[in-house]
Amino acid sequence: MPGIHGPSDYSREPPRHPSLKINAKEPFNAEPTRSDLISSYITPVDFFYKRNHGPIPVVDDIERYSVSVCGLIENSNELFMKDIWKLPKYTVTATLQCAGNRRTAMSKSRTVKGVGWDISAIGNAVWGGAKLADVLKLVGIPYLTSITQSGGKHVEFVSIDKCKEEKGGPYKASIPLSQATNPEADVLLAYEMNGEPLNRDHGYPLRVVVPGVIGARSVKWLDSINIIAEECQGFFVQKDYKMFPPTVNWDNINWSTRRPQMDFPVQCAICSLEDVSVVKHGKITIKGYAVSGGGRGIERVDISIDGGKTWVEATRYQRTGIPYIADDASSDKWAWVFFEAEANIPQSAEIVAKAVDIAANVQPESIDSIWNLRGILNTSWHRVQVRVGQANL
Ligand SMILES: Nc1nc2c(c(=O)[nH]1)N[C@H]1C(S)=C(S)[C@@H](COP(=O)(O)O)O[C@H]1N2
Ligand SMILES: [Mo]
């Protein structure tokens, strides 16, 4: 929609919370501190990590804003916000996690390419919007369709923003049509985050939220939806966000040999302690988040205070006071859980956390075994060091 968007440069970036740790300024990439991250189950918008590949677009004429739906369907359509608002509204509590979360730790093992992130490139929000399955039904694609009559098998989301990886073109990504048309997959075209209209950083006026899948597929500032035969051919699907083995380097990489990453693997991290903390003698509380992809719940979180030799089980919860039961209707299927354990720290110690999901997938012990040149999906056991001493040192 040329003409209705403002300048595509860094002159009109929105204000951001001063406590965010900025990993890159232009494009703006920032994450909250560890303690801010676990200060509440629902991450306040201010503390929600911001991951961008270009300037934040300016959409100031919401009346004229529309999303076109084209490609391998009978009739193309143009949907305005009023059309989206008219569809049944759903709220889905879902955790978004960047595939690059914990990249900085991976880069310490061996150099990787990409923006550095500590452990907070993740957040949990209540997304409000229409189900993509309903939007597609509106344009004539029934629920649970895996291929359209004209051979469409994937749903591509194209954004308004412009990024250098796409040589000045828009950010884009795709998901399988079968997932897009499955109402139970809870894929949303979201216009609200935590009960408020989306803000500019997070995709105003409309973004995709693909629960259980790496953040890269949840395209912000949606401009168009294309029904296509093959996966999106864009940079972020074909030349990025793929998981390679440790043997692959920039000289021997062959992108076409690997599939685009979709579900995120099981992950957890300790947020109540820094990489190295000085603690007072006595009991300490070890607290953090755990989450898995594909809607798989968290079965267990194990904590060790001796570097992984012996373990105790942490308690898990989503809302305080309500015990978390993985796979239960009372739990938020697409959301992280918090875990908590108390421990007596004798002396200097290495504290470790690892999570197990309901498919019994468990985090790998070492970074080296999953190291990859782009530094994605660092889900290795999370380790922090504590020293007993004066807490104010
Ligand atoms: N249009 C657009 N959508 C995008 C991106 C982007 O740069 N442009 N970044 C993606 C990546 S890599 C992630 S992890 C999430 C981050 O969403 P957030 O900034 O709302 O946390 O948005 C995804 N959607
Ligand atoms: Mo990401």
From TrEMBL:
EC number of the protein: 1.8.3.1
Positions of region (Disordered): 1-26
Entry GO CC: mitochondrion; peroxisome
Domain Moybdenum cofactor oxidoreductase dimerisation, chain residue ranges per copy: 260-388
Cofactor: Mo-molybdopterin
Keywords, comma-separated and alphabetical: Metal-binding, Molybdenum, Oxidoreductase
A Pfam family that the UniProt record links to this protein: Oxidored_molyb
MF GO annotations: heme binding; molybdenum ion binding; molybdopterin cofactor binding; sulfite oxidase activity
Coiled-coil region(s): none
Top-level taxon of the source organism: Eukaryota
Residues annotated as domain Oxidoreductase molybdopterin-binding: 53-235
Pathway in which this enzyme or protein is active: Sulfur metabolism; Energy metabolism; sulfur metabolism
Enzyme class name: oxidoreductase
Single biological process term from Gene Ontology: chlorophyll metabolic process
Protein name in UniProt: Sulfite oxidase
Biological source species: Nicotiana attenuata (Coyote tobacco)
